[in-house]
Specification:
This protein is an alpha+beta fold and 130 residues long. The longest helix is centred in the first third of the chain and has 19 residues, at 21-39. A 5-stranded antiparallel sheet has the order 3-4-2-1-5, with helices on one face. The protein is 31% helix and 26% strand. The chain is built from 3 helices and 5 strands, in the order H-H-E-E-H-E-E-E. The two termini are 15 Å apart.
């Protein structure tokens, strides 16, 4: 998880999006934690991340080999806050099927950068095995 956060920080800085670092790092932390806890990481079932620059923000993707899709839970003493935090800090999030497993994605936007001259797909960065 530390590697994903570090790679995201590096990508955001390079794209001039340091203003959303706090929100984006929280989102990637929650999505990776969900994948590790609920998707069952083991050899051959790694979690990988990908970050794609979008107009005014970043799309954060977490890929895992589980077919089980995340479902928000009622927060309580045993957790359940993760997807609620993602919902609060991301402009949108969702799940997409992959040949093996799924991708859980979230878009974090910077209102100050939404009207910038940056290209809609100005690059990407990733870490982990995919």
């Amino acid at each position: 998880m530390a590697l994903a956060r570090a790679q995201l920080r590096k990508a955001l800085a390079g794209w001039g999006l340091a203003g959303i670092e706090g929100s984006a790092v929280l989102v990637v932390s929650e999505l990776v934690t969900n994948a590790v806890v609920h998707a069952g990481v083991s050899p051959g079932r790694d979690v990988a991340t990908r970050f794609v620059r979008q107009d005014g923000g970043v799309r954060i993707e977490v890929h895992d080999a589980s077919d089980v899709w995340p479902v928000p839970r009622v927060p309580g003493d045993d957790g359940g806050f993760g997807l609620h935090l993602v919902d609060e800090f991301a402009a949108a999030w969702g799940v997409e099927e992959r040949e093996i497993g799924k991708t859980v994605w979230a878009v974090v936007l910077d209102p100050a950068a939404a009207n910038s001259d940056a290209p809609a797909d100005g690059g990407d960065a990733s870490c982990g095995n995919d």
